Amino acid sequence: MNTTHELIKNYYAAFNAKKFSDMLSFVTEDIIHDTNQGERSVGKEIFTSFLADMDKYYDEFLDSIVIMTNQDGTPASAEFICNGTYKSTCEGLPAASGQKYKLPVGCFFEIKNNKIARITNYYNLPDWVNQVK
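-> structure tokens emitted (133 positions)
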């Protein structure tokens, strides 16, 4: 359990430091990524592109992170507050002009061989849209 907690803690520390290569070192080659209200993607290459896109459109910092695991540490979850700036317009979303937002997020993980094998994120998209309109 402590190994999983540290893994996820380090993953989010890398996110906050914008060290995306470090984030990628914590995931499996066949990482499954379920985006909020989006499609499932599989593979580190696709996940790498997703991180680059996120960095293009958003500047985010996570705080109030709470990490939860079961006894064997294979499933885990986290909740946190995403503090962000919408810096570049993403197709299909409102126009970006540096709007600030603060959004509660839940995330679920599957752990295999001490790496993150699945990430599933959930947040309230209508709330985000209202904050950046």
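The mean pLDDT is 96.
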